[in-house]
Specification:
With 243 residues, this protein is an alpha+beta fold. It has helices at residues 3-22, 188-191, 196-242, and strands at 34-36, 43-48, 51-56, 62-64, 69-71, 87-91, 98-103, 106-111, 116-119, 124-127, 149-151, 158-163, 166-171, 177-179, 184-186. The protein folds into 3 domains: 22-78, Antimicrobial Protein, Tachycitin, Chain A; 79-132, Antimicrobial Protein, Tachycitin, Chain A (Beta Complex), CATH 2.170.140.10; 138-208, Antimicrobial Protein, Tachycitin, Chain A. Residues 23-80, 81-133, 135-195 form the Chitin-binding type-2 domain.
Length: 243
């Protein structure tokens, strides 16, 4: 029962952060600073007079907002979210005890507690003994003769290209799906995405969770308003009695 408030607060935090990210990214940012473009790992904005100017890092580099420079992908966490609204949870492409949260198009990296593993079907961290998790990791050293791909985690058109031990997120052209067997982008009827129905079900569950959170917040606010009204009534009664 103690985990529920923490989960609610986490969802509220990422929802609020996501709403901020949808506004002018340079709002309140000093001139000359660079900020993330959450629609592209290579993209960023240059802030001048409160207005953003879009820019891109050279091919093969990701923007590192903390360091204010274009950096190697293995030094930057970046995951482009397909959906620009709501909150979605996804398994990490390589790690069983990590997960990715997307809130209004902004991604966050989450960690399960020691002894727990992220359960894809429940979108939650569970006891590792009860979760069957198998992940294919990128090789630490690239082989120029062998290109290693990993399947996507949030949509049928997503896949990852291994580079220097880091999975680089990529997407197929519109209308194509990633074919896990042939290791290429293919027509949907040939790719046969194994979890297309599961993705639709997961999105439906996540919508229900978001609606529940909104209702829970409204109830919580009303309860606290009533509590404070009662407290103030008692305080005023005591003040008048003393007079």
């Amino acid at each position: 029962m103690q985990k529920q408030p923490v989960l609610v607060l986490t969802i509220l935090f990422v929802m609020l952060f996501g709403v901020r990210a949808q506004r002018n990214p340079c709002l309140g940012i000093p001139d000359g600073m660079f900020v993330n473009d959450f629609t592209s790992c290579e993209g960023y904005y240059v802030c001048l007079a409160g207005q953003p100017t879009q820019a891109l890092c050279p091919p093969g580099f990701y923007f590192n907002e903390a360091q204010q420079l274009c950096d190697f992908p293995h030094n930057v966490f970046c995951h482009v979210c397909n959906q620009q609204t709501g909150v979605q949870l996804f398994p990490h492409p390589e790690s069983c005890n990590q997960f990715i949260t997307c809130s209004s198009g902004v991604s966050f990296l989450g960690y399960c507690k020691p002894g727990e593993t992220y359960d894809d079907s429940l979108n939650a961290c569970k006891n590792e003994a009860r979760v069957n998790c198998e992940r294919i990791r990128c090789p630490e050293v690239d082989n120029p003769n062998v290109i290693v791909f990993l399947p996507g985690i949030q949509s049928c058109d997503e896949y990852f290209l291994c580079q220097s031990g880091t999975p680089i997120q990529r997407f197929c052209a519109p209308g194509l799906h990633w074919n896990r067997v042939a290791q290429r982008c293919d027509f949907p009827e040939l790719a046969q995405c194994p979890w297309e129905d599961f993705l639709e079900h997961r999105e439906w569950v996540q919508v229900l969770v978001q609606e529940w959170v909104q209702e829970w917040v409204q109830v919580w606010v009303l309860v606290w308003v009533q509590v404070w009204e009662q407290v103030w009534e008692q305080v005023w009664e005591q003040v008048w009695v003393r007079r």
